[in-house]
């Protein structure tokens, strides 16, 4: 049985000769929430895009659910990504936004409708299904973006700073909601944030990145109590 959900082996990525990811190896187990933290520009989004297949590594290997997907098309990886910017289709209703990927897959309409209803219920979007994105609050839009990911039943959820555009109180609320969903769906998630509180409260494992390398991997309290170096101590220990 494969318990390894995402496996990176010595992944490197350079852009125009500039090394951005400098050899990252990582195991994410099924059911885990792994959070990437690190300063702006350290390569968090690039790593996530490599896992999603929005870009390919310069060298190294990426496996998902036991399959080598290093060069596989994004749609063949069993991943779904949630972005900071929501990326909803403005001209479509909430229901159509959630259903979009399933329509492309050619699922029967009755099946699509049932899945959209289920997802809407889980995310408390049922009363909003006929609205368009511009008639929603920021938190509601982010819920739709999450709904769009959930409805595809991916092996792995990828989150790139999904709450950065929300105000502080809503951010706290959505954080709790994401934690609840992750547990309820028994999901495997890789979550990028620069928010220390998000990392400490959501993560089973935190990966501290610095300039394209992993400084330390560990449970939140492990990093907090035994930071491997001053960089980790500064990043986990002090509020930012
Ligand atoms: P983070 O998400 O941690 O803030 P990124 O992964 O977005 O960092 O970026 C890491 C580094 O890679 C940055 O220096 C950025 O400018 C560079 N970079 C990212 N994508 C590209 C690209 N498509 N072309 C050139 N440089 C890039
Ligand atoms: Mg980023």
TrEMBL record:
<dbReference type="GO" id="GO:0005524">
    <property type="term" value="F:ATP binding"/>
</dbReference>
<feature type="domain" description="ABC transporter">
    <location>
        <begin position="6"/>
        <end position="236"/>
    </location>
</feature>
<keyword id="KW-0813">Transport</keyword>
<protein>
    <submittedName>
        <fullName>Sn-glycerol-3-phosphate ABC transporter ATP-binding protein UgpC</fullName>
    </submittedName>
</protein>
<keyword id="KW-1003">Cell membrane</keyword>
<keyword id="KW-0472">Membrane</keyword>
<comment type="similarity">
    <text>Belongs to the ABC transporter superfamily.</text>
</comment>
<keyword id="KW-0997">Cell inner membrane</keyword>
<keyword id="KW-0547">Nucleotide-binding</keyword>
<keyword id="KW-0067">ATP-binding</keyword>
